[in-house]
Amino acid sequence: MEIHYLCAKLIIIIQAITMNIALALIVFLVAALLIWGIAEAHYKDFHYEEDKPHHPDPTAQKGPHKELNIRDIMRDNSTSGYNAVG
Which is more confidently placed, 4 or 78? Predict the structure, then answer.
């Protein structure tokens, strides 16, 4: 009789935990949808205009440098491993 009682209690505890996990998932999804809706509403109301340009990019190359496209890079690229060094 005691084993049946313990099994019944264990089943009740597992059901309670499962219900708590399911309830937590539902609450999480509702909160996520609510926050997403608020963010979308704020985004539709958001209008940004830059009044003055930002400082220039300090990483930008100055001088006679040319930006290479993929064909230029592949023309000069060597993929022959150790032989590319020597």
Answer: 4
Handedness of CA 46, 47, 53, 56 (dihedral sign): positive
pLDDT digits (tens, 9 = 90+) for 21-60: 888 889 899 999 999 998 888 888 777 776 776 777 666 6
Residue among 66, 78, 27 nearest 86 (CA): 78
Q: 84 with 78: CB under 8 angstroms?
A: yes
Q: Which residues of 31-70 are buried (b: 16+ CB within 10 A; e: fewer)?
A: eeeeeeeeeeeeeeeeeeeeeeeeeeeeeeeeeeeeeeee
